[in-house]
Amino acid sequence: MKFNLMDYAYATIVELRKALDAKDVSSVELAKFFLARIKKYNPDLNAFITVTEEEALMQARQADELIAEGKAKPLTGIPYAAKDLFSTRGIKTTAASKILENFEPVYDATTIRKLKEQKAVLLGKTNLDQFAHGSSTETSYYGPSKNPWDLTRIPGGSSGGSTAAVAAGLAPFALATETGGSIRQPASLCGISGWKPTYGRVSRYGVLAMTSSADSIGTVTRSAEDLAITAEALSGFDPKDSTTSKVPVGSWSKNFHQDLRGLKVGVPPEYFPEGIEEDVEKRVKEAINKIQSLGAEIREVSLPLTGYGSMVYAIVTPSEVSSNLSRYDGIRYGHVTQKAGDLYEIYSRSRGEGFGDEAKRRIMTGTYALSAGYRDAYYLKAQKVRRLIVDEFAEAFKKVDILLCPSTPSVAVKIGGAAQNPLFGYIADQLNIPSSLAGLSGLLVPCGFGQPKDGAAVDLPVGLQIIGPQWGEERVFQVGFAYQQATEWHKEKPKVFQN
Amino acid sequence: MILYYYKVMSISRDEIQRIAKLARIELTEEEMGRFQGDLNKVLGYIEVLKAINTEGVAPLASVTGLENTWREDEEADLGLQKAIIENAPEKSGRFIKVKKVL
Q1: Confidence (pTM)
Q2: What band does B24 get if pLDDT is binned at 50, 70 and 90?
């Protein structure tokens, strides 16, 4: 059965694989189709910083050869986008910053290399908050991305470009990263599926570092099944990233079953904080009921340290950022000032000119928190509280198999709204930060729509967060899959991009 | 729900300048003023975290518990020398150029 070309815009990886293998469509046709959609819609969305047309067509031709030889792998010929934090050899990698505006890495990130080996097709590099510092893409040097469900609103961040691209049908899947909510929050706001892996599952080699002890490499897709497929392709020990684990990669996409009998679900009351939007709370509770109807046992599990997560994050993240961003010095790569008299001025002016506000803020905060006399009181104290948070989750997972909760307390806010509220990022991410700091497995699946507190009569996506234990990928994928067999929220598409 | 509060701390202008120097970032007067306020806020968070008992708790270094992962010290020529030098803003032949250090 042949597809209509338009059907491909929102097809899942599973559907595209079938179509490619059945020769209903070629990789080159698919690549051209998505490249044309990007050309048409990216000006409205600003999801892409760089479109890699030549590269895409070349990879698509190679994919078609593999398919013709019967040697296709799961992602052969599947088009994808990569957050512009992933090093792509010879292709601009900017971190959405001025300091790396024209930077071309000399090597591919391990995750990019793995997708290249399967002959997946790279469509382009997507927009993000600058250096992944943010929850809305508004700190990008290239301007914010837009939410495909309402172009006046944020897509979330920092992986906002990747999620907007998938939600608008400009790419079947996209690479993303999460340190404090940057996959789950935008996935929630854009109504698509997102995977935040257990820290150490996927190699960070070649991904520009933010918070080295928490950065996790994941994907956003149109379904939980697709998430599992991408997870299998990307996970695994990498000798080039000494923080990757040798914990085996499961056949997560091959062992799904439909019901959840015997599953013990914990619902933490702290994840329904004061100020949560009414529709967000309603949709998430409806989703939890749905999962109960599939056989799961629901019980309340309290996580009293939840509220402290954002504060720990506010100290640990800038500290590690200040260290990771010290490499941008105007000497080996990137922007260099034209106004320097001596070496010190090369450093201080290049960095002063090249970094955006939020990057500077985090560098200053982190440098302070780590400086002599303060490191013990600030950074180490925060890391002690972090260990308590890790222990609290571990205790919870002795009683239940997974946790279900919202990912973010509101639907998408207007672009520019965050500027009025300096705490925006920490509020938006407060429900993702604790499990991110603990390095746990997590999934986000769309669970309905709600209207925003600002009174606009617009329906915006709400997401269900599924938190699993460390190395709990099998479990979170299973729950996401079962939920998506029983519901259709993940198949919804924004009205605007449908031709 | 946790109440966010912070004492108006005395992070001095000197302190901000010291940190900017450590961080090797040139800031405008306006930026310095702004970051003074931001740093004060972080101090406020610490005050809240101080209330949590962490006696006997070791600071978290790694969520996976991995320590000291080693590899063999083997040579490999990846042929990237030219590309690496290409990326440098100032270069001369096989060298990256920097202003005088001393």
Answers
A1: 0.95
A2: very high
